[in-house]
């Protein structure tokens, strides 16, 4: 009876489906032929029960012997959100095709350009684009529900299970292994690399695109000066880009070093004083803040020297009737409410999202041959009841959540595996995950000097999705390819 019941239960569970196609990519004049497998993979829990179909696209280089395949690096990549599918990285920089957008301007409606991606990483590694449960084709199975996957620790667990089982299923457990995440994907990376290490899977490297590890740097909690401090250099960089700096220095990086010094030595102590700062001191500080950001001193006085990123979006170009982008402050858009305290939309997202969405779906169903009856969720917000559980093991104090921070996992993983390297890619004009916030987090991990040397920081004169910017696209490819080559030998 048990066997009959088990079979009946199994028959109600949808099976994984993979759609195979042959693709190619030309990189620096050399054509690579690829096998692409797009579809779903059944993930099982620790008791071997099916819990999810995980959507993915797996690219492997063709015409190779099995021994060569096993030595070839494999990169597991995803976007962030939380709740975003992976099509941004897939069609922006990693896969064999990419979407062309009018950076840093609005891209007109279709037909969109889907072109060969000369900047793909497929010449140095095989690639698995992953869509976490709730995004893409990924859905729960059996008794599992969406909420079982929607949280910091739940997400880390499900991705760890997928990666382990996928490596085994494809005979790649002994291949050089990498994680590549963007935005919340970097927050995920830090926890996931530690979870995988505890499960016996050491990584060769982890690539962080537009990183965040400590969510205080983004959330502007009450009475916490840190987010104001770490955002300020990006406000100044934005003013430099838009020519709003008096006597603008010619070298952006020299300018930013000056801004970092001012932020650390003058702005931070002023905020720390709180209401003990005199009116004269506040006025003097407001004048300096205004000078560095192309804004008005009285605005900083009214803000008590503390301006959130959303307030900056609305204020910075208010006199021109415009707002600047959150994901990339090089982008500007129309401000429909000139009295608004905060920005009402993100011009960068508005400028490129239709091209990425339509272009990817065309590629998914037409080129990758995925069944057109299968719905691809570009975001988990399409799913009813999407809500993220931000609790994270190791962040508790006195029986309550004291932080939302996976930097502790990053530090533990790097300290317990002194060979793993971490590459962090920062967009200077990214006001979603600011570069100075990452620098602050790294300098507060408590790493030994030898371990800290395993972290490589790169900077791009672009935003959160630096790969929309053609010069940064080329730098991205070189930085990532060099990193994989250097760490997979």
Automatic annotation (TrEMBL):
Keywords: Carboxypeptidase, Glycoprotein, Hydrolase, Protease, Signal. It comes from the Bacteria. The keyword Calcium does not apply. Pfam families: Peptidase_S10 (PF00450). This is Peptidase S10. It comes from Muriicola marianensis.
């Amino acid at each position: 009876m048990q066997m009959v019941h088990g079979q009946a239960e199994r028959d109600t569970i949808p099976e994984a489906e993979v759609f195979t196609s042959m693709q190619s990519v030309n990189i620096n004049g050399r054509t690579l032929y690829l096998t692409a497998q797009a579809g779903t993979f059944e993930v099982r829990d620790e008791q071997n029960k099916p819990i999810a179909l995980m959507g993915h696209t797996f690219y492997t280089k063709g015409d190779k012997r099995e021994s060569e395949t096993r030595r070839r690096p494999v990169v597991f990549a995803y976007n962030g959100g939380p709740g975003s599918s992976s099509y941004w990285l897939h069609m922006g920089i990693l896969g064999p095709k990419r979407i062309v957008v009018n950076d840093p301007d609005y891209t007109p409606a279709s037909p969109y350009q889907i072109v060969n991606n000369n900047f793909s990483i497929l010449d140095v590694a095989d690639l698995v684009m992953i869509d976490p449960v709730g995004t893409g084709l990924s859905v729960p199975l059996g008794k599992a529900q969406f909420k079982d996957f929607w949280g910091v620790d739940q997400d880390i667990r499900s991705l760890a299970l997928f990666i382990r089982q996928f490596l085994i299923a494809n005979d790649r457990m002994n291949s050089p292994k990498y994680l590549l995440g963007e935005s919340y994907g970097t927050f995920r990376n830090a926890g996931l690399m530690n979870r995988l290490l505890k499960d016996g899977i050491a990584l060769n490297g982890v690539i962080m695109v537009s990183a965040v590890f400590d969510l205080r740097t983004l959330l502007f909690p009450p009475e916490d000066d840190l987010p104001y401090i770490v955002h300020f250099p990006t406000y100044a960089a934005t003013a430099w880009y838009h020519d709003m700096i008096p006597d603008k220095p010619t070298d952006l990086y020299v300018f930013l070093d000056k801004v970092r010094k001012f932020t650390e030595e003058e702005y931070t102590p002023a905020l720390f004083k709180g209401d003990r700062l005199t009116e004269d001191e506040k006025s003097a500080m407001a004048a300096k803040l205004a000078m560095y950001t192309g804004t008005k001193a009285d605005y900083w006085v009214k803000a008590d020297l503390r301006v959130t990123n959303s307030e900056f979006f609305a204020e910075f170009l208010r006199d021109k009737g415009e707002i600047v982008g959150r994901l990339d402050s090089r982008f500007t858009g129309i401000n429909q409410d000139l009295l608004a305290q905060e920005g009402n939309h993100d011009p960068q997202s508005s400028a490129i999202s239709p091209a990425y969405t339509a272009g990817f779906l065309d590629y998914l169903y037409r080129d990758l041959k995925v069944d057109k009856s299968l719905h691809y969720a570009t975001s988990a917000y399409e799913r009813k009841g999407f809500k993220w559980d931000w609790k994270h093991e190791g962040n508790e104090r006195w029986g309550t959540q004291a932080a939302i921070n996976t930097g502790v996992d990053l530090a533990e993983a790097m300290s317990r595996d002194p060979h793993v390297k971490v590459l962090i890619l920062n967009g200077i004009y990214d006001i979603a995950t600011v570069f100075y916030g990452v620098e602050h987090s790294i300098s507060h991990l408590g790493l030994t000097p030898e371990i800290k040397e395993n972290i490589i920081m790169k900077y791009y004169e672009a935003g959160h999705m630096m790969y929309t910017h053609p010069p940064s696209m080329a730098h991205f490819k070189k930085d990532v390819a060099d990193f994989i080559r250097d760490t997979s030998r």
